[in-house]
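Work Package 4 report. The design task specified in the project plan requires that, given a folded chain encoded as structure tokens, an amino acid be chosen for each position. We show below one input record used in the internal validation round.
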């Protein structure tokens, strides 16, 4: 697959659909590479008349791995977060947003519609807030403002998220670890069947699994803290999508994101999807992509 130099980072990317069509830029979440976007999700957006671009963030997949920055002690940093102590990260969410903007420029994308999930939603929020001239609209999926007033993750989901991953090179261990995590944080109403989940996770691990990189990304999230003031600057048309069953970033996280934008005078629509956890269930892909397409179609040209 091709890659481009963006903000000093080599970002691997992939496209689907006709380049002449309006572009949807997909931004993935914590520790995940572009393969965690279900292929059917991307294909449905392309079939709806869009040019779809997905990529690996820094420290994920086949993009630049920043191992020279060290591997954080997540247990220690989690304790500091709980004690409200300052967390220092080797890079920031703003740096990752700058990567995304540089990718837009490097690929010559003209005001794409940016769609981000989880941490990718945070990155996309920052892009929309700080670089509004670069994007036409924002879709923030299962993401948050980072406010400490919001409910914490369910205990089991949080423990699964910070559980020690297998060492690099342990393909089967990495697949099993990812399957376990997705089972815990995903939809209970619409779980992925084993015959679908395993090959999905195998494709993700084959693209590149980088536990130290995921730890550095986690620090970037923790160090960012409450980003409500930044999110309040968003003026591009915004869709906030959130799963009613999300155990990691609970439904109030999406509601607060929408409220911050709305209270600041922004154009925002908030949709809670029943039967959706911290995932994109196959059974709900028509519904989810339908919301995204409808949102984009209402954006003035």
């Amino acid at each position: 697959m091709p890659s481009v130099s963006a903000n000093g980072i080599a970002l691997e990317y992939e496209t689907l659909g006709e380049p002449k069509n309006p572009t949807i830029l997909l931004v993935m979440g914590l520790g995940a590479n572009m393969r965690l976007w279900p292929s059917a999700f991307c294909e449905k957006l392309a079939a709806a008349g869009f040019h779809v671009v997905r990529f690996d963030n820094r420290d994920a997949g086949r993009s630049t791995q920043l191992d020279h920055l060290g591997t954080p002690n997540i247990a220690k940093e989690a304790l500091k977060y709980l004690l409200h102590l300052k967390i220092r990260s080797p890079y920031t969410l703003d740096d990752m947003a700058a990567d995304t903007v540089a990718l837009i420029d490097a690929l010559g994308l003209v005001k794409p519609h940016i769609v981000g999930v989880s941490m990718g939603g945070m990155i996309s929020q920052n892009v929309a807030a700080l670089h509004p001239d670069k994007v036409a609209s924002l879709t923030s999926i299962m993401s948050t403002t980072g406010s400490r007033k919001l409910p914490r993750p369910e205990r089991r989901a949080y423990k699964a998220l910070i559980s020690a991953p297998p060492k690099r090179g342990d393909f089967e261990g990495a697949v099993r670890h990812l399957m376990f995590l997705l089972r815990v944080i995903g939809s209970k109403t619409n779980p992925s069947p084993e015959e679908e989940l395993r090959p999905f996770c195998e494709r993700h691990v084959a693209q590149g699994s980088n536990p130290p990189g995921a730890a550095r990304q986690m620090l970037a999230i923790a160090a960012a803290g409450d980003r409500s003031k930044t999110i309040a600057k968003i003026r591009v048309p915004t869709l906030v999508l959130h799963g009613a069953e999300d155990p990691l970033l609970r439904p109030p996280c999406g509601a607060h994101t929408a409220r911050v934008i709305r209270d600041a005078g922004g154009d925002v629509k908030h949709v809670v999807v029943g039967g959706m956890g911290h995932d994109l269930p196959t059974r709900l892909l028509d519904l989810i992509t339908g919301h995204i397409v409808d949102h984009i179609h209402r954006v003035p040209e």
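The chain is about 40% helix and 15% strand. Validation will be extended to a larger panel in the next phase.
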